[in-house]
Write a structure and sequence with these properties.
Layout lengths: L2 H20 L6 H8 L3 H7 L3 H26 L2 H20 L2 H10 L7 H19 L8 H16 L4 H15 L9
Helix pairs in contact: 1-2, 1-4, 1-5, 4-5, 4-7, 5-7, 5-9, 7-8, 8-9
Length: 187
């Protein structure tokens, strides 16, 4: 791909991501093209259907949220990395809400590949829990799938309220629940 075509594609993906994050409703493709500073023909050259751009944004965001876990672990302690990663995961789900109708229809029809989202998210959580258990900052007896379910519960229960402060408090409580209990007599 030529450099200018790659730049246009990247701008389209960024504009689409921002539009999907900002609105839970279907976003007009011409609005995405305008936000990217390109014509609708350029959008259709890169993404011939709504499903194509939705699938590309979803795949890129899933890759980003999963790959952010090791970088956060290198930068922060395990508990802090897990908490920061939870915020990134919540942003991914907020973007997904703006694409959900197209995603579900595409998955049902087979026009959009069904990704192994839950498995990849749970694997990222498992890595952080393992590092936290080794460091002694997170409990060693936690099933990563349980954490995935807890996070989905937080995000689904707060999606309608759009209360970021509440989401943050609930994520803090989740991380606190994953810390080992204090040693007897250390209080």
């Amino acid at each position: 791909m030529r450099a200018d075509a790659r730049r246009n594609r990247d701008r389209l993906l960024a504009a689409a991501r921002d539009a999907f994050a900002a609105s839970p409703d279907a976003v007009p493709l011409d609005a995405i093209a305008r936000a990217a500073g390109v014509g609708i023909g350029t959008l259709y050259r890169h993404f011939p259907t709504r499903e194509a751009i939705v699938e590309a944004v979803y795949a890129a965001e899933l890759d980003e949220v999963v790959s952010s876990a090791p970088a956060l672990l290198d930068e922060l302690g395990p508990a802090a990395a897990l908490r920061a990663w939870m915020t990134r995961y919540e942003a991914f789900l907020r973007i997904k809400r703006g694409m959900s109708d197209t995603l579900h229809a595409g998955w049902a029809s087979g026009s959009i590949a069904t990704p192994a989202t839950r498995e990849r998210i749970t694997a990222a959580i498992a890595m952080m829990l393992r590092r936290g258990a080794e460091a002694g900052s997170l409990r060693p007896d936690v099933d990563p799938e349980d954490v995935t379910v807890m996070l989905l519960g937080v995000f689904l229960s707060t999606a309608a309220t759009d209360a970021p402060d509440r989401v943050g408090r609930l994520l803090d409580l989740t991380v606190d629940a994953l810390r080992p209990p204090p040693e007897p007599g250390s209080r």
